[in-house]
Design brief:
Elements: H1 25-33, E1 37-43, E2 51-58, H2 66-82, E3 89-94, E4 102-109, H3 113-120
Antiparallel strand pairs: 1-2, 2-4, 3-4
C-alpha cells in the first residue's frame, strides 16, 4: 500500500471491500466508517492468543504528525476505558524508516470485541476535531 503520492494529483480516501478475519469484521467495519480513517494488518488472533489486533490511522498516514497522533491515542484510549474496555490496549507506533510516520494498534481481548464495537459505534465516541469526525450514517 502506497501512502505517499508521487504525482501532483489530489488523492482522497474511498471505502472499498476487503477480506478481513471474520472475528474482527465488526471492529474493522466501524473504524472504517470514520471519515478518512484507514485500517490494515488486522487479525482476530490465533490460539493460544486471545487478542485480536487492528492497526489503523485516523487520517492520511503520511500526513498525521506524531504529536497529533499521540494526543489522539490518549483520547481514544480514554473513550474505551470509560466504556469498560479495560483489557484493550491502544498503542502508538512509529516507523523506523520514515520520519514522522505513525499509526495506532489496538490489541483487543476476544471478550471485549463486542464492547469495543458498541463503544465506537456510539455517537458518544465522537472524535470531533478537524481530521477525525464520527460518521453520520
Amino acid at each position: 500500500m502506497s501512502t505517499q503520492s508521487h504525482t501532483p494529483h489530489n488523492e482522497v480516501v474511498i471505502k472499498v471491500n476487503a477480506y478481513v478475519d471474520e472475528g474482527i469484521k465488526d471492529v474493522v467495519r466501524v473504524l472504517n466508517r470514520f471519515d478518512g480513517w484507514m485500517t490494515w494488518d488486522s487479525c482476530q488472533g490465533n490460539p493460544p492468543s486471545t487478542l485480536a489486533v487492528v492497526e489503523f490511522c485516523p487520517g492520511r498516514v503520511s500526513k498525521v504528525q506524531i504529536p497529533e497522533l499521540a494526543t489522539f491515542r490518549e483520547r481514544f484510549a480514554e473513550v474505551l476505558l470509560r466504556a469498560g474496555c479495560k483489557g484493550t490496549k491502544v498503542q502508538l507506533n512509529r516507523s523506523r524508516e520514515v520520519l514522522g510516520y505513525g499509526w495506532i494498534s489496538l490489541a483487543i481481548p476476544q471478550t471485549e470485541l463486542g464492547s469495543v464495537v458498541e463503544t465506537l459505534d456510539s455517537p458518544n465516541a465522537c472524535f470531533d476535531n478537524k481530521a477525525h469526525t464520527h460518521p453520520t450514517g
